[in-house]
Amino acid sequence: MKICVLVKQVPGSEAQFSVSADGSWIQETGLPFEMNESDNYALEEALQIREQKDEGEVVVVSLGPDRCQKVIREALAKGADRAIHIKEDAPYNTDPFSIATALANTIKDEKFELVLSGLQSDDLGFGQTGVILGEILGMTTATLVVGTEIQDGKIKVKRELESGWFQWQTMDLPASLAIQSGLNQPRYPSLKGIMGAKKKEIKESLFVDMCDIDGLQSFNGLSVQRAEKQTEMIEGTVDQVVSKLVDVFKNEIRIN
Amino acid sequence: MDILVVLEDKNGMIHRMSQEAITGAQRIGSEFNLSVGILAMGGNAAALSDQAAQYDVNEVLTLENEHLNHYTADGYGAAVAQVVTNENPKYVFFGHTYQVRDYVPRVSAKLKRPFLNDAVSYSSEGGNPVFSKQVLNAKLVAALQPNDGGTILISFQSAAFSSENIQSGSANVRSISVDIDSAEIKTVTEDPFQEEAGGVDLSSAELIVSIGRGIGKEENILLAQELANTIGAEIASSRPVVDSGWLPSHHQVGSSGQTVSPKLYLALGISGAIQHVVGMKGSKNIVVINKDPDAPLFELADYGVVGDMLEIVPKLTEALDR
Ligand SMILES: Cc1cc2nc3c(=O)[nH]c(=O)nc-3n(C[C@H](O)[C@H](O)[C@H](O)COP(=O)(O)OP(=O)(O)OC[C@H]3O[C@@H](n4cnc5c(N)ncnc54)[C@H](O)[C@@H]3O)c2cc1C
Ligand SMILES: Cc1cc2nc3c(=O)[nH]c(=O)nc-3n(C[C@H](O)[C@H](O)[C@H](O)COP(=O)(O)OP(=O)(O)OC[C@H]3O[C@@H](n4cnc5c(N)ncnc54)[C@H](O)[C@@H]3O)c2cc1C
C-alpha cells in the first residue's frame, strides 16, 4: 500500500512566544521547532501498516521553510522511504485551503491509497488540512482516528467521539485520515535509521508553483490572552511555597 | 437569512454546543441587525426542529433525507454544502464538536469558503463581526477575516456563549430537501460504543491530583501518587500522559475523557489546552503548579505557583504528612 504522511513542523510546547513588531505574527528566531504531535502518531501508523503488509511505501510530505528539513530527516530516520518538501519562506499568510491545495497538487499523480495527517496542528489548530485535501482528491475522509484495519479495497477505522465514546466505520479507498494522538507508541529513530536517512530522496518544490489559488481567509492581528480569574500567585523559595500551599489546602480549601 | 445555525443531534435533543451557537447567533444577530435561521437535519430532524422552533429566531429549516439518517462525513458534507448554496447565508454557525471537526472541512472544500474553527470571541470592525480563535498553545488569540465578502463557516468553542442566555420565542418551520446520490456515500458507520469502563469514577472525587506532560517521565508519577495518597485524592491526568501509556485511559480528564468538579483540582505540569480545560473548569478550587508563567491554565487558577513540580511535590507531600 502506498501511503502519504503529512508532517508539519511547529513550535515546541515549551516555546515562549512574543508577537512581532507589526503584530502580524510571532517572532520566530530562537523558537524550538518540532514535529507536530499528532503527525508523529500518523507517521507511526503508516510505518506499522507498511510493516504488517511487508510491502508498500511511506512518503512524507511537509510544507514550510527550510527549517522543516529537520522533521523530514527525523521521519526518514524513523523509516519513511522518501520525502517531498514544498518550500515556503513567506510569512504566515495562507490558510488551510491553500495549504491543502498545494499538497493536493503535489501528490495527485502519486496515486496514494492512503493519506495520513495529524488531527490538528499544535500551533494554529485549524484541524482541516487532511480533510480538505481528501475532498479535493476525491478520497473518503475521517478524523479523530484512533485505530485502523486494512481490508480488501477498504479501510475500517475506529473514531473517537466525545466523552469516551467510539465508533467504527468502513470506508472506500483511497482515504484521507486525520489521526488522533495515542493510537500507537511512536518509535525513536535508530542510529542505523539516522545514517540511512541521509541517502533517502527528498524531492523539493516551491509553494508558489504548487498553489494555484488565492487563500480564503487571513490573519487580522494577534494578541495575548487575557486572564479570566483573579489568581493568587504563591511566591518565594520552595520551602515558603510549600508551607503556603499547606496553609491554603488546610485553611482555605479545607481538604480534610 | 444572514446567519444559519446548523444543529447537531444528541439522541433526539439539540446538542449543548449547538444551543450555544444559537445563543451566539441571537446575540450577533441583534447587535449587527442580521436575521437568524436554524437547520435541523438527520434522522431526528423533526424532533430537533420542534425544539428549535421554540427559540427566538426568524426561521427553522427541516431537512430529512434517507442518506442523512446516520451520520457520515460524505452525506453531511454534501447536504450542508447544498443548503448553504441554496440559502446563501453570510455566516454559518456550528458548535465545535467532534462531528463538526469531521465534516465541515469537507463543506469548506466543496464550496471554497473559509472555515474558521474553534472561535472563542468576536469584535466589531467597520460594522461587521470579526471572529477570533486561540493559537499557539492557547497563549495568543488571532482574529481571522475572510478574503472576500462571501459566506464564512464558523464553529464556536465550548462555552464561547452561555446557553443560559438563549432567547425563547417562536419561529416558522420550512421543509427543505437536498439531492444526494447514493454513490456519494462511501462510508458505512456502526453504532457508537463505550470502551469498558475503568476503575475510577473521577466525577465524584472530592480531591484530585492531576498530572500533565510536565511530569517528564513515567517514574515520576510515583511522586504525584504519594501526594495523592497523603491527602486521599484520586490521580487524574491530561491526555499525553495516557497517550504515553503511563496511566490507563480512565484517568484522563477532558473532552475525550472524564468531566470533574472536585473541591480541589491540583494541576501539576499541565499547560491548559481547551480540550483539558473543558473537563475540569467546574472545579471549586484550582491550584496550578507550572514552571511556565505564561501557561494558559494559570488563567483559571485560584492559586498559582510558578515553579518546578518535581522539586515542590515531594516537599509538599512531606509537609502534608506531618
Ligand atoms: C494567515 C496564515 C499564514 C500562514 N503562512 C504560513 C507559511 O507561510 N508557512 C507555513 O509553513 N505555514 C503557514 N501558515 C500555516 C499554514 O497555513 C497552516 O499549516 C495551514 O493553515 C493549515 O492549518 P494548520 O496548520 O492549523 O493545520 P491543521 O489543519 O490543523 O493540520 C492538520 C494536519 O495537516 C497536516 N499539515 C498541516 N500543515 C501542513 C504543512 N505545512 N505541511 C505538511 N503537513 C501539514 C499535518 O499532518 C497536520 O497535523 C499560515 C497560516 C495562516 C492562518
Ligand atoms: C480532539 C481532541 C481531544 C483532546 N482530548 C483531550 C482530553 O480529553 N484531555 C486532555 O488533557 N487533552 C486532550 N487533548 C490534547 C490537548 O489539546 C493538549 O495537547 C493536552 O491537554 C496537553 O497536555 P499537557 O498540558 O499535559 O501537556 P503540554 O501542553 O505539553 O504541557 C506541559 C506543561 O508542563 C509544564 N512543565 C514542564 N515541566 C515542568 C516541571 N518540571 N514543573 C512544572 N511544570 C512543568 C510546561 O510548562 C507545560 O505548561 C485533545 C486534543 C484534541 C485535538
The coarse overall form of chain A would be globular
Named once each, the bound ligands are: flavin-adenine dinucleotide
Q: What's the number of extended β-strand segments of chain B?
A: 18
Question: In whole angstroms, how far apart are the ends of chain A?
Answer: 59 Å
Q: What is the CA–CA distance across the termini of chain B?
A: 66 Å
Low-confidence stretches of chain A: none
Number of strands of chain A: 13
Q: In which range does the helix fraction of chain A lie?
A: 25-40%
CATH topology of the largest domain in chain B: Rossmann fold
CATH top level assignment of chain A: Alpha Beta
CATH superfamily of chain A: HUPs
Brief summary:
The complex is a heterodimer of chains A (256) and B (322). By secondary structure, chain A is an alpha/beta fold.
Please provide a written account of the structure.
- The complex is a heterodimer of chains A (256) and B (322).
- Chain A has 256 residues and is α/β, with parallel strands linked by helices.
- Chain A has a single domain, classed as Rossmann fold (3-Layer(aba) Sandwich).
- Chain A contains seven helices and 13 strands.
- In chain A, the strands form two sheets. Chain A has a nine-stranded mixed β-sheet, with helices on both faces. Chain A has a two-stranded antiparallel sheet with strand order 2-3.
- In chain A, β4, α2 and β5 form a beta-alpha-beta unit.
- In chain A, α2 crosses α5 and α3 packs across α4.
- By secondary structure, chain B is α/β, with parallel strands linked by helices.
- Chain B has two domains: 182 residues, 3-Layer(aba) Sandwich (Rossmann fold), CATH 3.40.50.620; 120 residues, TPP-binding domain (Rossmann fold).
- Chain B is 28% helix and 28% strand.
- Chain B contains eight helices and 18 strands.
- In chain B, strands 9-8-7-10-6-1-4-5-11 form a nine-stranded mixed β-sheet, sandwiched between helices. A five-stranded parallel β-sheet of chain B has the order 15-14-16-17-18. A two-stranded antiparallel ribbon of chain B has the order 2-3.
- In chain B, α3 packs across α4.
- The model of chain B has no long low-confidence stretch (mean pLDDT 95).
- At the A-B interface, α3, α4, β7, β9 and β12 of A face α3, α4, β7, β8 and β9 of B.
- One flavin-adenine dinucleotide sits at the interface of chains B and A.
